[in-house]
Amino acid sequence: MSNPAITGEGRRPRLAAPPGACECHSHVYGPFSRFPLAPGRKPHAEAPVAAYERLLARLGFARGVIVQPSAYAADNACTLAAIAEMGTDRARGVAVTRPEVSRAELGRLHAGGIRGMRFYLFAPDLGLEVIDEMARRIAPLGWHVDVQGDGRKLPDWIPTLARLPVDVVIDHIGRIPPESGTENPAFAALLGFVETGRCWVKLSAPYYGSRQGPPAYADIAPRVKALIAARPDRLVWAANWPHPSFAVGEKPDDADLLDLLLDWAPKEETRRMILADNPARLYGFA
To answer: How far apart (Å, rounded) are the C-alpha atoms in residues 182 and 65?
Structure first.
């Protein structure tokens, strides 16, 4: 575990994070002796909570949100253990469950710091066919649904998502291909959904929607700026550490990704909203 992208080490960002800043989407893997990956899922290098803590310290963040990775399917033990180690005053989580999850189990997850239910549509765990029922069940807990999938399908999904009795969080700027920029129909649908105030978007993983790539991901900037102009109060920032789609030697530097906000949101008060105020509301931090 010598690579900085896995250890959480590296340079400090130029952006000075505000007090209470919260990183809103990363994953913890391992130690595998205690938390082995689910059978048949994509292998990953260990990325333990101690390394995530180093990442937060390097970025200047006080809080973090640990999202259940698909490699653990619906076994949330590793995610819950990581939240417990950090403490629920500093950490929250997003879980994956089976459709038949009991009310008692949902209560246990809530007590462990979980505040959202993940629908990762690239894996066969929870799909949109059960999202109405699951949203109804988590509504009394104040949770949201967290959705990630092929962003080209957002215009088809949004009518279903818009009628749910809970807020909706869309990962990674929608994972919409770069074609047509802000005029892309899928991005236009996402922007319209955000404008309703029922949808939140994570400003994260720009590599999923960029053809131009690092360091500036310049073709993503107009979309992010359009979201910020529309509803800065419905946006949060996330690293997507440890970048599970990349090989260990190819992972981006999280400080570079955070520094993109200096261009995307040049006003300090806007960055404070995205980095601290919004996640405090969304994830229920004091």
So the answer is: 28
Distance CA 272, CA 22 (A): 10
Whole-number pLDDT of residue 1: 40
Is residue 123 helix, strand or coil? Answer: coil
The position carrying tokens 């999904």 is 157
CATH number of the CATH domain containing 132: 3.20.20.140
215 burial (CB, 10 Å; 0-12 / 13-18 / 19+) is exposed
Instruction: Write down the number of H helices and E strands in the chain.
Output: 12, 8
Q: What is the pLDDT of residue 42?
A: 85
Residue 263's SS3 state is helix
Residues in the chain with pLDDT values less than 70? 1-5
Specify the amino acid at residue 79. Answer: T
pLDDT at position 3 is: 63
How far is 33 from 35, CA to CA, in rounded Å?
6
pTM above 0.85, yes or no: yes
pLDDT at 248: 80
Containing structural domain, residue 137: 4-11+19-283
User: What pLDDT does 172 receive?
Assistant: 98
CA distance 37 to 43: 7
Q: How many domains does the chain have?
A: 1
Rg (CA), the chain: 17
Return the active site residues.
Answer: 240
Q: How far is CA 101 from the centre of its chain?
A: 23
Cis peptide leading into residue 266 (ω within 30°): no
What is the enclosing helix (H) or strand (E) of 202?
strand 199-203
Which amino acid appears at position 207 of this protein? Y
Residue 237 CA to residue 87 CA, distance in Å, equals: 21
